[in-house]
Amino acid sequence: MPGFRLALSFLLAITSLASASASAQSQSDDALKLARAARTQVGVTRNYDPAYVRLAYPGGDVPVDRGVCSDVVIRAFRVAGAVDLQKLVHEDMLAKFSAYPKLWGLRRPDSNIDHRRVPNLQRFFERQGKALPVSDRANDYAAGDVVSWRLPNGLAHIGVVSEHRLAGPDARPLVIHNIGSGAREEDVLFAWPQTGHYRWFPETPRR
Fold first, then answer.
1. Residue 204: its pLDDT value, please?
2. pTM of the prediction?
3. Using CB atoms within 10 A of its CB, is residue 119 exposed (0-12), middle (13-18) or buried (19+)?
4. Which phi and psi (to 5°) does residue 125 adopt?
5. From CA 105, how far away is CA 87, in angstroms rounded?
6. What is the widest separation between alpha-carbon atoms in the chain?
7. Distance CA 193, CA 18 (A)
């Protein structure tokens, strides 16, 4: 009987480990899909256009040939994981408007623009427990991570970390972003001071 219990415990441990491994692999695949969904915009989104546009809700988007840095992130999340940041940010702002930055003089949420503003995306990711420490080590960043910066002109910027990396000892990952000439994949991870690092799909399952 003790031998049977020991064997059963061992079998349960192996099954649990295999399940956790499969879950972690699934989450890693989701993050990879996010990075690849961002890259599909390269050569398609050719213009930088910050104009205010009235959008359908949910699932609203500006024309795919244009947009701003946040639109790269929004489109990638929709394509990769059916995650509608327009809807999620709007619902969270309706629930806790006071928690979001007061930079635009608004008195209530606006589903046309709120999710397209980098400070709002930052606050949303933070409130969802998706924030990671900002780091100067390339290996701390994984494909599908979202990174935000403060540009020299004071504007906020955001992009998606690629699974493609530079060759050599640093092996910095590239980033897919739109800073003025459409969506591009470039070596900009440490080009400007980072203000945020976020991971929607964790590499290991939560307990």
1. 52
2. 0.85
3. middle
4. -60, -40
5. 21
6. 73
7. 40
16, pLDDT greater than 70: no
Residue 80's Cβ-side half-sphere holds a number of Cα atoms within 13 Å equal to 29
In sign, the C-alpha dihedral spanning 10, 12, 13, 17 is: positive
Grouping H, G, I as helix, E, B as strand and the rest as coil, residue 39 is helix
Between CA 84 and CA 58 the distance in angstroms is 8
Domain residue spans of the chain: 2-198
Question: Residue type for 18, please?
Answer: A
Q: Is the pLDDT of residue 18 over 50?
A: no
Structure tokens given for 4: 């049977």
Architecture of the domain spanning 2-198: Alpha-Beta Complex (3.90)
Cis-peptide, bond into residue 58, ω within 30° of zero: yes
